[in-house]
Amino acid sequence: MSAHNRGTELDLSWISKIQVNHPAVLRRAEQIQARRTVKKEWQAAWLLKAVTFIDLTTLSGDDTSSNIQRLCYKAKYPIREDLLKALNMHDKGITTAAVCVYPARVCDAVKALQAAGCAIPVASVATGFPAGQTHLKTRLEEIRLAVEDGAAEIDVVINRSLVLTGRWEALYDEIRQFRKACGEAHLKTILATGELGSLTNVYKASMIAMMAGSDFIKTSTGKETVNATFPVAIVMLRAIRDFFWKTGNKIGFKPAGGIRSAKDSLAWLSLVKEELGDEWLKPELFRIGASTLLSDIERQIYHHVTGRYAAYHDLPMS
Prior knowledge:
Elements: H1 22-34, H2 40-51, E1 54-57, H3 65-76, H4 81-86, E2 98-101, H5 106-115, E3 122-126, H6 136-148, E4 153-157, H7 160-164, H8 168-182, E5 186-190, H9 199-211, E6 216-218, H10 230-247, E7 252-254, H11 262-276, E8 288-290, H12 293-306
Parallel strand pairs: 1-2, 1-8, 2-3, 3-4, 4-5, 5-6, 6-7
């Protein structure tokens, strides 16, 4: 991953006058959704690229060491070898960008990836995921323990009440403490945008998170009723662009929650390319949080290679 975002001083004058033009954002979102996607070999190439952006995720109450091992194996071998050979991509080292698990499963993931002989990073959710409604001391300790266990990336959740009540200094201070607790690990800050009340709040929370030292801003936990949507993404991407113009710091973007189809992934790649440019289309600056997306991408690759659709048992998770 790229160098850490060291953050900036809190400057509320940046965000105090911001009002997001809601109808304009919705119009832009409709444009993205209405666009025809790439076809044939171009689609296959974009889908393989999409694989390299996936944070392959399992965040279930019934996660065990064995299904973490299967997840890690799939992260290393995301597309069947014979399909990659047919596309002449078998020697390109295509893997997912990371695996993402609960803090208690970090050790399992680190061991499984070491046993598989690969350097895919382990990301851990933390800070009372998904609600963020635990004591600050507990949330900070959770980060430290995940890093101790080998997590290279920490996906924290913010305290939404600080946004809803306009307590921007308190939000900045909390995320600064998260940044410090991460040490050398990268900090990905989940805004839980479906619970922030307005697109203006989404912009302000994005900007505060970047000022406070987040390396990535992420749409959702995947557990809210509304997760990654294009209007929210447009606002977050433009906040990233504004922050880059003001500071020269490139901050990453991670949509998560509800991204299940190969077609969805192509729309997200197009959006990032159009809003931020090709330089953001790399795993250091763009991730997709997903658990079932990879299965559909693999089915589409199978169809491209063989001309027929695979049954899900043809492409098992491991």
